[in-house]
Design goal:
CATH superfamily of the largest domain: Winged helix-like DNA-binding domain superfamily/Winged helix DNA-binding domain
CATH architecture of the largest domain: Orthogonal Bundle
Distance between the termini: 45 Å
Length: 125
């Protein structure tokens, strides 16, 4: 828990309150959230184990934690089927689906930049 009186915390709160881009990145940023969102965008409703297989390097703990955060932010829906054994599926909410154009644009830009940077890097060597 961070001190709510620290200048770092206060500055972050001000930025998040006044900048839509910073706020968005705070919701979907990090190492795994974009990959989770992309898997859900590509696959629609998906069982937990299928999601895990699509992200083979993520730990169970990190996947569950990120899914819970995305659920808290109303971007992902968790569907529990009352069966034995329990079956759990995840899907993007309507709000999460509304991010599709943005996520596609970010992905395209990232691919373009990576290729450009790799080309530039290989020319410099």
């Amino acid at each position: 828990m961070r001190k709510t009186t620290s200048s770092n915390y206060i500055n972050e709160e001000r930025i998040l309150a006044s900048c839509g881009m910073a706020y968005t990145l705070s919701l979907i940023g990090g190492r795994w959230k974009p990959a989770i969102l992309w898997q859900l965008l590509l696959n629609g409703r998906i069982r937990y184990n299928q999601l895990k297989k699509g992200l083979p390097d993520i730990s169970e703990r990190v996947l569950v934690s990120n899914l819970r955060e995305l659920e808290t932010h109303l971007l992902v829906s968790r569907i529990v089927h009352p069966e034995v054994p329990p079956r759990v599926e995840y899907e993007l909410t309507e709000l999460g689906q509304s991010m599709k154009p943005m996520l596609e644009t970010i992905s395209s830009w990232g691919n373009m930049h990576r290729e450009l940077a790799e080309t530039e890097h290989s020319v410099q060597i």
